[in-house]
Design goal:
Heat Shock Protein 90, eight-stranded mixed β-sheet, disordered C terminus
Amino acid sequence: MQIQVRINEEGALRNQRYAFTDRFTLVTELLQNARRAGATRIDITHDTAAKRLCVRDDGHGIGDFQKLLTFNESGWDEATADLERPFGIGFSKCLYAASRCIVASGRQRVDFETEAALARAPIEVVTLADTEVLTTGTVIELQGVDLPELANRIESLCQGFPVTVVFNDKTMERRYAEANLAGMQTAIGSIHLTGTGDGTHSSHLLVFLLGLCVMKPIYFQEGQVNVVHLDSRQFTARLPDREKLIDEDVQRKRIDAELKACWRRTLEEAKTQLDATHFVETYYSAMRSWGHLDLLNDLDVLPRGLCDSIVGYPIQDDSGTRDHLQTTAATPTRADIEGGAVILVALDSVNDENAARWMLARARAYVVFDWIGLHANHWAQRHVRMLEDEPVEVEAVSEQHRTELEGRWIWPTVVLCETVRIRVGNDSADVHDAGVHHDGCLYIPAEEASGEPVRQASSFTDEHDQFLESERDADRDALADLIQRLRSVDPLQTLESLLQGLKLGKYPLLRGKQFHLTVGVGAAPGHSLEMVGDVGQGGLHAEP
């Protein structure tokens, strides 16, 4: 017994209707056929209510009408077949999308019901008399076509098409057609890069094959997209819709490599035409995005966006806003950096371990530098100080008090002192005006009175990445209150401040009572208390 591959023709015809995933493929297939026939203009007329679609082109027409209804045999000449590799199933979409087809070309014409055609009933090709009007090109009329959204989709379908398309008497813009773009010829086809003139580059990509889109981003801003028209001899779209490339993941790598090479050519040319400052300011972002940072290595100018001054109080902030930083007003010169007048430092975002390093950099006016934004061999890399790798010491100068803050979210040790001294390597700085968090302690110098230092101790973000605003505010208020109490010099004022916070007047049982309080005796924290009677004239009391 032997077996062999056979084709169930009835089943093939029946199931072909499910091959196309998009009903608008009907239109794109007719457009492709007209283009292959040498058309320079395609007119589409669509009557939604009547469900009628008519496509007219000025191409060289149909020589053999049998090719229309022959599946998997394109019927195109050898040159077209070699260049475009047509599948020979395009017109078949008409049989499944319409109830009636009328095709006219030259002096020949067919008019048939699609149901009869799929049943393989013979269809007569009528030859018109010499006295009848000759059909230039090809006219295809489809009846019973359900394309209610075609008017909204047609512009998108034609956006990269090489032939003029007129829909219901309106000429389509075709803004991404190859002839309408300034393209660069490459090994894979024509590439148009967005942003080559002003550096406003984009990673978004529209890819066309034979004028139809085979790759596109989910969203992109109109006009801010790279456009590629692929060489059809090297790339093939998947049958039958031609909406995606075969081996798309592999082909995308080829396309990206060519995009990168095109940007290299563009940047090298711009570098010869612009002064260094203008070149860097205009094209740095594109160089970084497309992997060409080495073009900066021989320039004395740094990208300004890599250099930040510390203009605020460094705090932990998981949102990444870094409000304590501001781009430097002027980019440091190479002479200042190499001469030591400007110190470039690398710092991670403020965290539990590096706040003191940030405070040293703030006090010494170091420039926080994004060294990752330069090529590894750039001259500036030799002058970047990696503060994260250097040990840090923090000292409380003239310590006054040391206690624990009982906060809602954090419980650091609070150290009040005259000055906070920070040492990193051979450098040191005395901080007078702001708190410093280090190794579980909040060092509070003489000029610090706010509760803001708690924000160096924590980002107040929980394990679910939720920002705990109320906990932050409570701990900030608690620290400010603790600092005030520890620095109090008037005993009565201090006690009054504590009692105000307790709001004892809210308790009816305590109203009108007089107590005798002695601080500093008994068990820690040390006090004794006795009630001596009701309040008469004068006496210590608290208002609600």
